[in-house]
Batch of 2 targets.
Target 1
Amino acid sequence: MKLMIENIKIALQSIRTNLLRTVLTIFIIAIGIAALVGIQTAIESIKSSISENFTSMGANTFNIRNKSSNVRIGKSGVKPKRYASISYAEAMRFKNEFPVITSISSWASSTASITYKSKKSDPNINVTGTDENYILTAGYKLSEGRNFTASEVKEGKHLALIGEEVKNNIFDNSSPLGKLISIGGNKYRVIGVLAAKGSSMSFGGDKSCLIPLTNARQYFGYAGQSFTISVLSEKSEMLNSTIGQAIAKMRVVRKLKPIEEDNFDIIRSDNLTQIMFENIKYVTIAALVIGIITLFGSAIGLMNIMLVSVTERTKEIGTRKALGATSKIIRWQFLIEAIVICQLGGIIGIVLGILIGNITSIVIGSSFITPWVWILSGVALCIVVGLISGFFPAAKAAKLDPIEALRYE
């Protein structure tokens, strides 16, 4: 330990002696580590933001929908199958018998206009018939007013919950609560406003209007109308088991025989999250490759500096050997010097990387991230780079003959 401390002191003294070129090497190493830690921190911030956003959209939920038809390609393809829609009776039976929070919804219109007095919204409002549990399973929150009650849904009351963008378009700064709006020639009283969710990635969360399901069936119903069942798992860890139970229950509701395939689809809310994370994985790999290439260049630069240092300090090495330093001690002296230079660069790079990554985190509105895995990885990489860079110079220094070294000018 004493020898190591002494070698670290000698390394720091050597750095002060050759300050300019050592500082340049330190900053090359710092850039490589900063690129690695910074990009990884930014990626973790983005992933955290995506998870939070999808959780607010109901990431612990899954939907049961009627199964899509298979498409036949060419004469030898599979004949298309037509699957029966999920009827209102089937959906209601599932909701009443399944022991987890469940909602039923059905699309009413995606091109509706909402009118209030002389003001009219754009004809791109999504009108959905829902029950009292829908805002829970869909991850909505209310910024004003209240939700439907079970009795209001059952009676098909002319009530509506509107999205934030709808409110801003036709009510300006006034409160819409209690006011009558027109949807498809019918009057609805606004009882609540859905909190803003954003309309990014094709989610029209703020351009929506919810009306009671029974009312939607009465005024927007059509032949073969299918209903979507949404189930809210109690915990994200229980999502898979809840899906398994739901499949079993739905097969009973649909009266399927054991040998028959499912004639309904399970749509998980976190599917898109997993797809995005899968794509982000490639960005992570690219960042890792960039950081390693930069560190490889730093290692070559550091090796060059150490070889020059060995040549310049030949007489010093000869003196130390003459005073009793073994080849092993000399070898470790130069190895530790290379590691110290790398660690100084690594520390600067880690600090810069955390700052860069968390600036990204602040911009996207995510929380502060401390990437401990990548910090420790950066420290380990610096040790490896230092050992690789210092190995040949240290070996060269250890092999010097003390008499020849003392005579070197």
Target 2
Amino acid sequence: MSNESPSRRFAAVVLAAGQGTRMKSALPKVLHEIAGRPMVCWPVEAALDAGAERVVVVLGHGKEQVEAALRDAFGDRVDTALQAERRGTGHAVQCAMPALADYDGPIVILYGDVPLIEPEAVAALVDARGDAPLSLLTCRAADPSGYGRILREDGEVSGIREHKDCSAEQLAIDEINPGLYAAGAEFLRGALDGLSDDNSQGELYLTDIVEPAAKSGGARGVDWPLESLQGVNDRAQLAEAAAVMRRRVATRHARAGVTIRDLSRVDIDHAVTIGTDAILEPGVVLRGDTTIGADAHVDVGCVVTDSTIDAGAYLKPYSVVSESHVGERAQVGPFSHLRPGSVMKTESKIGNFVEMKKTVLGEGSKASHLAYLGDGRIERDVNIGAGTIFCNYDGVQKHLTVLEEGCFIGSDSQLVAPITVGKGAYVGTGTTVTKNVPADALAVGRAKQQNKEGYAPRLRSRMQARAKAAKEAKSKG
């Protein structure tokens, strides 16, 4: 949803050059995911949704990886700039300015490690500036440690003091600076040129643009909840931000007509689409490019990745579906696994502990218990008994099993591919099928049973004597 107004125009600079050493990861900090996407994508999207005409992301550590992620997410809607040397936030914005050399509108400054920023916050920041040189978001924090403090004179923002440079009196201030600004382009260029590294860190502080703004027309503060503006510096903060985002995403779907039993106990990636009147039970995880149809029911503990679940389908508890398609009113599980390439047609069914891989299960067909169906084509109205296995791999290649319409596969059968069981055929329980079965034929391939009267006691006696001898030998050894 865009918050763009007819009069609002701005560009955005997103700072994402830091290494993020506290993440203790080989992956650049801003590529750690929240709701199924790199965290840098969230502030970029917030800027675009608020109406940004142009977005420049400042990169440094892991430049190529971050560029690739941005390209995948936004195509050519985002430009990048390089901060080759880390000399502070002011220097990072300086690195972005050549990409905006011809831009004369307001410029918003955001951060790639602040993923919870909302389009509404960006819009409020731009709108609050008016004709002043600068506007900035401010927050109240019970524990302001580590944040720059907002300095005021006669109630108006007069400057910002970084935590490490604060006096004892300034450390007591609880109004903090999360670091997000909107500035007129002309003012920003001049203020950046005037930055000095004469501070405890020897860096160019972006916060130092606030004081000249206050003196030359005003720095307008916009109070905003801290939860939306907190940065991510380590894995614990990543988890905290992800929890907030999970609830936001779940709430959005609930308000769009999805029944979610517990908003805090589902995990839905940003790209997932869900139809009205679908039901998600606690513990459901929906990942990647997944679509859940109207009236579908995804029960407790199911994990669905890059898959389509059609209208009215029912995923029973603790089923796993990956890169597959479940048709209308089909049923999966409980405890079933659809591996990549599986397709279940309308009103088909797999049940307890059934695994499918690269197999099409036809309309109305079912495998209700304890089966492996790999590399198969199963036509409509086929019944597959418990314990059936498609023996699809010969150690070198995979082979196809075809079950034609209306055939019946008895329990504990092994179908050695490549194999075809014809239309209406019947495979007897316990059969190993090694050659094609014609239509309407009965295939039976089991050993002949023999009953030896009175033999069980003698067999049991021999087995007990053998066990006793083994125990005695072990005690002597």
